[in-house]
Design goal:
Elements: E1 5-10, H1 12-16, H2 24-39, E2 43-48, H3 51-58, H4 68-91, E3 96-102, H5 110-125, E4 128-134, H6 140-145, H7 148-158, E5 163-168, E6 189-190, H8 195-200, H9 213-225, E7 229-234, H10 240-245, E8 252-254, E9 276-279, H11 281-290, E10 299-303, E11 311-315, E12 321-326, H12 331-337, H13 345-349, E13 363-365
Parallel strand pairs: 1-2, 1-5, 2-4, 3-4, 5-7, 6-8, 9-11
Antiparallel strand pairs: 7-8, 9-10, 11-12, 12-13
Helix pairs in contact: 2-4, 3-4, 7-9
């Protein structure tokens, strides 16, 4: 078996075994499997949920107001206990870990993306297992949407991983909600994530975590575009991590894109759009079907204010996002040159950064 870099995301329901507290025996079993893969020469990255659950347990399940601040409090208390648990259990096998607390903000510009990537690579090169979690104590938006699934996709991109394993309380993605439909069948392999598939995805079954199957589909879509294979599987399945590493059919497997994005575009996945531009039908066709850059002539509207070099959403005239890219001009300049030919840029704004508004090399098509 060739050496692989495998990112393993563990949902709260997996770490607690469906109970209210962290299940050390369950985690130790997962650590044992990680150790076995490390012994075989593979690189392992762990993305862990469970800080809020660990905080509740550590504070003896306090009655707190249902506010974001309460979740931040629990995450702050629980994070130290959670990382301590990982450290103690990996140390049984003489494996060192390194903690990385990330949010999307840490990945929203290329320089910070590369810094995070360098730190991750240094750990892997020195046989240290990175243990990544969302910085829930400050990341209020991420707590609301349960973004550790998406964070794991970004971590897989940072690590240039071969596989991303999303371990959860279900066997995988089913044709219908197995809680309601006894005839629901497991979907074992998925080539394309479409709207019909997204409609199937439901919420977290256990109610312990903040993400559901919908965020796992988002993660699979992001990682797949970067050429990373994604598997959703049950964390309780015996030897689940080892079996996935051996390419044994487990859970739901999402096939990666055969022509993944160039590495330098990866950071765009973590960049929240600062604004958006609306394009005419000709420009939309040029992007989707001809692999072209965006010329000022095709821009019909500029929304919000943003600086040169920021990520923006690229939309059709109905406002539907078709791509994301890095703007060569700020929003004020784009408003002045929108609808005009490229040769008129300098005359209109007094300077130019080239003939295109967004270059194809700085764009990812959705």
């Amino acid at each position: 078996m060739k050496q692989q870099t495998i990112v393993i995301k563990l949902g709260t329901s997996v770490l607690t075994g469906g109970s209210k507290k962290i299940d050390r025996a369950r985690i130790l079993e997962l650590v044992r499997q990680c150790h076995q893969l490390i012994e075989q020469g593979h690189n392992i990255v762990v993305v862990t949920s469970g800080a809020i659950a660990a905080g509740r347990e550590n504070l003896n399940y306090p009655e707190l107001p249902k506010t974001v601040a309460s979740k931040q409090l629990l995450a702050s208390v629980g994070q130290s206990k959670l990382i301590q648990t990982w450290e103690q259990l990996f140390s049984i096998y003489n494996i060192y870990i390194g903690q990385m607390l990330l949010t999307r903000a840490d990945l929203e510009d290329r320089e910070r993306f590369l810094n995070a990537q360098d730190a991750l690579k240094a750990m892997l090169d020195n046989h240290i297992v990175p243990v990544i979690n969302e910085n829930d104590a400050v990341a209020t938006a991420e707590i609301k949407v349960g973004d550790n699934d998406n964070l794991s996709a970004l971590a897989a991109i940072l690590a240039q991983a071969d596989k991303l394993i999303l371990l959860t309380d279900q066997e995988g993605l089913f044709t219908a909600d197995p809680r309601k439909d006894p005839n629901a069948k497991l979907i074992t392999e998925i080539e394309t994530i479409d709207t019909a598939l997204k409609a199937i995805a439901g919420d977290s079954i256990s109610g312990l975590g903040t993400g559901g199957m919908g965020t796992k589909l988002q993660a699979a879509e992001i990682a797949g575009k970067a050429g990373i294979e994604v598997i959703i599987a049950a964390g309780s399945r015996p030897n689940v991590i080892l079996d996935v590493a051996k390419n044994i059919a487990v859970g739901t497997r999402f096939m990666p894109k055969k022509t993944p994005l160039e590495h330098r575009k990866y950071w765009l996945f973590g960049a929240p759009p600062a604004g958006s531009i609306l394009l005419d039908d000709g420009a939309v066709n040029a992007i989707l079907n001809q692999g072209r850059s965006i010329l000022p002539k095709g821009i019909v509207e500029v929304k919000n204010n943003f600086s040169r070099g920021e990520a923006i959403d690229i939309c059709n005239q109905q406002g539907v996002s078709i791509a994301r890219g890095v703007s060569r001009y700020n929003s004020d300049a784009l408003r002045q040159i929108a609808g005009h030919h490229s040769q008129d840029i300098s005359k209109l704004i007094g300077y130019e950064y080239g003939p295109v508004a967004v270059h194809r090399d700085d764009m990812i098509v959705k």
